[in-house]
Amino acid sequence: MTVRSMWCHFVLLLHLSTTISLGAAEISCRNEDGNPIDWFVLYKLPKFTEEESAGLGLEYMYLDSLTHAWRLSKYLINMTQGGLGQTLKQLYETYESKNNSVAYAIYNDEVPHSKAFNWKKGHTKGFLLLDKSQGFWVIHSVPLFPPFLEDGYGYPATGKEYGQTAICVTFKYDQFTEIDQQLLSYNPSIYNCFIPDIFQDHLPNLQKLCARSRLPPVPPRHLSKLQSAHGETFLHFAKSHLFVDDIYVAWVAQELKTHLLVESWQHSGHSLPSNCSLQYHVYNIHTIETPLKSTFNSINDHSKWCVSKSPEDQWTCIGDLNRAAEQAWRSGGFICTQNQNIYKAFRNLVMRYESCNDSSTLR
Ligand SMILES: *[C@@H]1O[C@H](CO)[C@@H](O)[C@H](O)[C@H]1NC(C)=O
Ligand SMILES: *[C@@H]1O[C@H](CO)[C@@H](O)[C@H](O)[C@H]1NC(C)=O
Ligand SMILES: *[C@@H]1O[C@H](CO)[C@@H](O)[C@H](O)[C@H]1NC(C)=O
Ligand SMILES: *[C@@H]1O[C@H](CO)[C@@H](O)[C@H](O)[C@H]1NC(C)=O
Q1: For a 10 Å CB count at each end of the chain, is N or C smaller?
Q2: Which family does it belong to (predicted)?
C-alpha cells in the first residue's frame, strides 16, 4: 500500500466509525438540544412565588453534566423540546416500534386518568428505558406523569401549581441489575411496561413486577452503589414498607454521616418537625431562593430532596418520600451524589430552615 492509499483507507475508516456511532443513537438521557448526556437535573418552579406576578407554573431550572449551574430553560416543561420531553421521546418511539430488544417501565403512585391512590404500592414515581447496551432511569415527583404511552408526551395541569424535581441518569446495562433489585423494595405502581424475555436473567424482579406475578421476599431496605455511563458515582437508598421509619432521620442522614437540610411536601397534618435526636440531624427547609432571586415557601413545593448542611460533606439526594409520619409505612427511595455542581446548585437554594428546639438538641 502506498502512503496515499493508506491515508485514504484511514480516512474512510474514520468516516465509517463516526457515522456508525452517530447512526446508532444510544438510549440515553437527552439534554435540551436533544443530544445524549450523562445526567440532568431539573427543578420546575411553583406557580406562586413570593413575587407579585405568578408564573405559568411550567418554567423550570435545568442543570446537566456539561453545564455547571442552574439555567432557566428556554422551554416550558410541557414542551417536547426540553430535556424531559427529549428523553421521553425515546420511550414513546420504542412503544410505537414494538422493539423486542428494548425494555421499559413507567410507574407512579398516582396513575394518569385515575383518582385512586394505591397505599400498598410505593410512594414513588419514575420511568426507565434500556437495551442490552445501556439506558436511563428518571426519578421525579410529578403526580399523573408521564402520560400513558399511547397518549404521547404531555404535562398534567395538576403538576403546575407546585414545585417539582426530576433527575435522569444514563447507565450501562450491568447497572440495571442493581436497579432491578432496588425496584423490588420500591414495589412501584407500574402502569406501562415491556420486559422482553431476553432480559429475564438480569431483570427478574422488574419482569415479575411488570407481569404482576408473585415476588420474592423483599428486603426491608437496600443500599446500592451505582455508576453512570460516564463514571459518576451515585448511592441509591431503597426502603420497603417493612422499614417503618422516617427515611431521612433513621437512615439517609446516619448512613451518609451528614446533617441534612430537607425539602419535602409538608402539607399533611402529620408533617414531622426538624429532628436532632440522633447523631446526624435533619432540618426542614422553610424557604427557597432561586438564582433569579425569586423566593417560595416549601408549602408550595412538591419536590423531595435534601442536601448536606455542611459543604465538606457535599451530599445531594433526590427522591420519593416526604417528611410526614404516614410515609414511614410507604416504600420508596433516594438517589444521592457528591457531585459538586449538583450540591452547589441545591445548597444555594436554601434560604431559611427550621432549627431544632434547644431542648431537643443532643450534641
Ligand atoms: C404549554 O402550556 C402553555 C400554557 O398553558 C400553552 O400556551 C402551550 O400551548 C402549551 N404547549 C404545549 C406544547 O402543550
Ligand atoms: C431495536 O433496538 C435495538 C437495540 O437498541 C436497536 O439496535 C435496533 O436498531 C432497534 N430496531 C428497530 C427496528 O428500531
Ligand atoms: C427523631 O426521629 C427518630 C427516628 O425516626 C425518632 O425515633 C425520634 O423520636 C425523633 N425525635 C423527635 C424529637 O421527634
Ligand atoms: C419546638 O417547640 C415548639 C413549641 O413547643 C413546637 O411547636 C415545635 O414543633 C418544636 N420544634 C421542633 C423542631 O421540635
Answers
A1: C
A2: Belongs to the DNase II family.
Residues 6 or more apart in contact with residue 138 via CB below 8 angstroms:
29, 84, 87, 126, 127, 128, 166, 167, 168
Residue list, ligand 2 pocket, CB within 6 Å:
97, 99, 101-102, 131
79 C-beta closer than 6 A to ligand 1: yes
Residue 175: its pLDDT value, please?
98
* Residue ranges covered by each domain of the chain: 27-360
Q: Collapsing DSSP states into helix, strand and coil, what is residue 178?
A: helix
DSSP-based three-state secondary structure for 287: strand
Nearest protein Cα to ligand 3, atom 8: 277
For atom 7 of ligand 4, the residue with the nearest CA is: 273
Q: Atom of ligand 4 at shortest distance to CA of 275?
A: 13
Q: Which pLDDT tens digit goes with each residue over 253-269?
A: 999 999 999 999 988 66
CB-ligand 1 contact for 77 (6 Å cutoff): no
Residue-wise pLDDT for 183-219, tens only, equals: 999 999 999 999 999 999 999 999 999 999 999 999 9
User: Which atom of ligand 4 is nearest the CA belonging to 274?
Assistant: 13
Residue with cell 418552579: 45
